[in-house]
Amino acid sequence: MIQSQDRSFYIGASDTSYVVGNWETKSFENWWLEKLGLYKNSLKTEAMQAGNNFEHKILDSLDIEGLEKDKQIIIDRLRVNLDGNTETCIYEVKTHNIDKEFKVSKQYWRQAQVEMYASKIYNLYIVEYGLKEEDYKNFFNSIDKNRINLIKIEYDENFIQEEYLPKLKILSKCLKEGVYPEWKQQE
After folding, report:
1. What pTM value is reported for the model?
2. Given phi > 0 = left and psi -120 to 50 = alpha, else beta, which region is 27?
3. Strand partners, 97
């Protein structure tokens, strides 16, 4: 759980869908203004707060020797925060309402790709944990190991090299210059 919530001047792994997505939308514009430090997104949902508060407890319950928490990797304008990792594996915690089936979204998959790229650890599991209604109100509840599911994510070098890095390069340059990016698809 990273303490600073300031997301300006760096592009994170959780921003990957913006990086590879459509740069001509209002949501991209708001995201970019946040990156430039001109807009503050103050969204804090009950689900986000619960996820943040349970993250370390979930990682601790895995009983993994040598587990490091909250490692940060900075490569130019890319700033990647790993929830948990060893020298050979990343553990990305995702909580959700237990009454709804969890599926690895495209956004989560993309985030995992960038975490593996930045860390050079090409072994990643999403640690999925279903929260009950009472967990959203009481962050002191203990972790039920029966609700933990590990989902392996395979590294996709092609996605990183062909889709992600060309756009990240443009965005990093624009971020340094404080300008709005334009993506012109190569013919």
Report:
1. 0.93
2. alpha
3. 131
Give per-residue pLDDT as tens, 84-124. Answer: 999 999 999 999 999 999 999 999 999 999 999 999 999 99
Q: Pull the structure tokens for residue 132.
A: 């009950």
Tokens of 174: 């624009």
For the range 136-145, what are the long-range contacts, defined as Cβ-Cβ under 8 Å and sequence gap of 24 or more?
136/46, 136/47, 136/50, 139/50, 139/53, 139/54, 142/57, 143/54, 143/57, 143/58, 143/60, 143/61, 145/61
CB 105 within 8 A of CB 7: no
Where residue 151 falls (left for φ over 0; alpha for ψ -120 to 50; beta otherwise) is beta
Give the pLDDT confidence of 69-88 residue by residue, as tens digits: 999 999 999 999 999 999 99
Q: What does the alpha-carbon distance between residue 77 and residue 57 come to, in Å, rounded to a whole number?
A: 30
